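RESIDUES AND SHAPES:
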Amino acid sequence: MNRILRLPTLALAALAFVFLATPVLAQAPKAGKYYEDNVDLGFKVKMPKDWEFTPPQPGEDSLIGKYTPARNRYINISPENVLWLEAYLVKFDRRKKAGDEKEEEEDASSKSGDTSSTGAPHTDQQKDLLEWLDGNMIGSGFRVKEAKDKTIGKVESTEFLIEGSSNGDPFHVYSIVYRLHADCDVAIVFNGPEDNKKWRKYESAAKSMAKSFKRLELEELELSEAKAGDHGLRSLKRAKLEKEVAMTPGWELYETENYFIISNNDDREFMKELQERLEAIRGVYETMYPFDEAARIKVAAAKRKAEEAKDDEEAEEKPRETTSGYSSRQRSQCSVVRVCKNDVQYREYGGPGGSAGYWASFHEELVIYDDKEGGGRRNTWAVLNHEAFHQYIFYLYGSLAPHSWYNEGHGDFFSGWQYKHKKFVLKPFDWRQRLVQGMVRENKFVPLKEIVRFTQREYYSGSEYDTGPGEHYAQGWSFIWFLRTGRGKAPGWDEGWEKILPVYFEALASTEDLEAAVDQAFEGVDFEALTESWKAYTLK
C-alpha cells in the first residue's frame, strides 16, 4: 500500500466497542517526567506518568508531540460514548523558517532567550488554541468557558477551561498557553470528563503539571561526525533527524548504509534484524531494478523530448534540471523508515485504518509497526518488504505511480520472499495465493484485460465481478507472479509475454502516460490465451 489517508485519532473511536465488552477504564493522570527541549524552543514541563509519547508526522508544524495512556486509554462520558484520553504539547510558532525572506532587524528576544515577552492579549492565544482544537482534537463545538492570565515560571501565560462535545456528549479541555518568546507560544492541552466530580481529579493533575513549566537555555546539539562514504545530502538528513529525535522522548535513530530508521521499540534483537532485512531486500530490488538502467531510460526520454521540442518556440532550450544536485541513488540512500512499537502507536501516529504499514511519498517516510503481539512478526516482515519496494521505486524513477496491478502486485511479490541465512529467496506470497486460487476455481475475478487498466480508485473498490480490494490485491500478486516465474512452467506460455513487464515500465518511465504504457506492454497479446495460461498456473 502506498496511498496515504491521514486519519485523526478519532479513528480509534471505532474500536470502542471492543474495549467496552471488557471495560477497563482509565484513571486520572499523574505528573510524570519532564518533557525537555533544549535544542529548539527552550523549555521543559512535566507530562503524564506512564503515558507514551508519539511524535508529529512530517509537516505537522504546530504539534510538538502527543501523550496517550499505554493502557486503559479511555473513559465513559455516557453509557454509549467514550472519550479517548490525550495530552498534547503544541506550539504556535511565528519565527522565521530557514529559507524564508528575513527582515533586516530580527527580534533579539527570540534569538537570545530573553525572558521578556510582548504580553500579547490572551484573545490571540484563545483564537490560536480554538483553531488548533477544531482541527486536531477529537470532538467539536469547542468554546472557552474561562480564561485567566497567569505567570508560571516567570513566563506570562493564559489558562483556559474549554468545553467540547463528542457525539453530543460534553467533555472538558484544560490548557495553558505560555508566551515563551515574542514570536512563539507553547501550550499544553488535556481532555477529561465533563462531570464536575470526576473533572476535579483531571483538572488538578493538569494544573499540577502546568505549574512545572520552566524556560531552558538552548544548547548546541552534538551531531554525529560524517561517516566514510557520506555525501552531502546524507549528512544533512542525519543532522535533521538527530535534531528531531532529540525532541522525541523514547525514540532513537538507527542507521544502515541506505536507511535511517526511527523507532521507540527497545527490542534490540528485533531492531538489528530489521536493519539487516532492509539492506538485504534492497539488494533484491537493485538486482531487478538497477539505477543504471533507470538512468538510461531517463536520458533516452530527455533526448526524445528535446528533439520533439526543437520546433516549439515556447519549449525550454535545455532539459529541465533538478535543483537538488543529488542523484536518484543518493536520495534513495537517505530513505527514512519509522517503526512504531505496536499497532496502537501506529494508529496514534496516523496509520490508516485497515493497514499495517504505508509509504508516504509526500513525507518521504515509510511507516510500519512491530506486530509481535498481534499477527506475529511474519506480518511485519511481509509489510516491510512490500512498502520498502514502493519507497525504492519512488527514488528510482521519481514520483511515478504505475497502475495498481503492477505497483501493488510487485509489493506483494516481494512480500513473499523469505529471509534465510542472511539473504532473501523467492517464494510465493501464501496470503494472496490461497485467496486467488479460490477465485480462479469459482471463476470470480476481474478479466485481465480490464484489471491492467484499473485506476487506483477502482483497485481499492468493489467491482461488477463481485470482487473487492482483497481480491484485486490477490489477483495483482498472482499476475505478477505468473509473469515473473511462469516461463517454462505455465501451460501454453508465450515468449512474447516476457516483454510485458519491462516494456510497461520503460514506457511509463519515459512517457509518464499510464494508458500508453498498457497499450505498448500488451500490444499484440492474446488476452484469452494469457488468461487461460494464468489460470492454469495459478492452480498448479
